Input
Amino acid sequence: MIFSNSVEWLGAKLNLSHGITGSLLAAVGTALPETIVPLVAIFWGIDRETLVKVLAGNVEALNSMNDISMGAIIGAPFMLSTVAFFLIGFSSWLYFKSGRRKTREIKVDNTVLERDLTFFLVSFSIAFISIFLNHSLRVVVGIILILLYFFYLYKTLEEEKNSSYKGEELEGNLDPFLLSKFTKLKPSLFLIGVQLVVSLALLIYSAHHFVEVIKDVSKCLSFPPFIISLLLTPIATELPEKFNSWMWIRQKKDTLAVGNISGALVFQGTFPITIGLLFTSWQINSLISYLVFIFCLMSAGIVLFASKTKRLNYKVFLLGAVFYLIYLVAVVVQNM
Output
């Protein structure tokens, strides 16, 4: 909450458009905790000998940390493309039924949404294919994904020049700046920066304890660490922040709401995936886990198709819950 509050105020102070605030600042800000979890799982307390083995591609030395890291990395885009998309659809339907919204359509900047989902489909498809590659090739793929994200940043910033929206409207709807409650000072760029650094330190510290909890829960339930991490990590670290999209749907700021999720998908499909390619085995031990990749790509593909055909309404986003439930039932049945 502290971190996302800092990021949202930063976007408002910089007078950024709906598209860039949703797809870049809000998306990356709320996605960063999931990126920190696998990093902490891999590198927190690691001895020098094990670190050398991991950097050389011998990730077997990580044991359960490997599975926890992979679960966190893959689970984030899975949750975003299923549960988070469902939240968009459900909130839109709810406000349509209550009369707050006058149409079933979700009116977004199609350029923003289609750009985001296209980049995600490309990057996550590459990540899926990388399961079948050796470590050396995965290193090359990781570099390609990083370059792809920087190209995405360039495209987004170029499109920002043609945007007419400025950040004052967003600032008026933000939660109060947290440090202002204690300092009584107006939120300046300096104060926002201080809060950002403090919140990042807290994220790293809490991520360490969260990893330990994941290991304990896995042992208690006798479930694989990969499955527990995949299902719990994004729900605990990212889903609460995605309720920002619920607020923006209520305020009829659909581009912000959807861009918050689609932009996070692009980030999660590049930077964290690269961490997985470089520092984990990036191998799937259960055939049912392939469904995570398939369902992510299917859900994002359906939303992209609906956007291109001008049929984007709440029903399209509600489908995300179907994919999530199918996978959840399959996991439970497999581990009974």
Summary: The two ends are 36 Å apart (CA to CA).
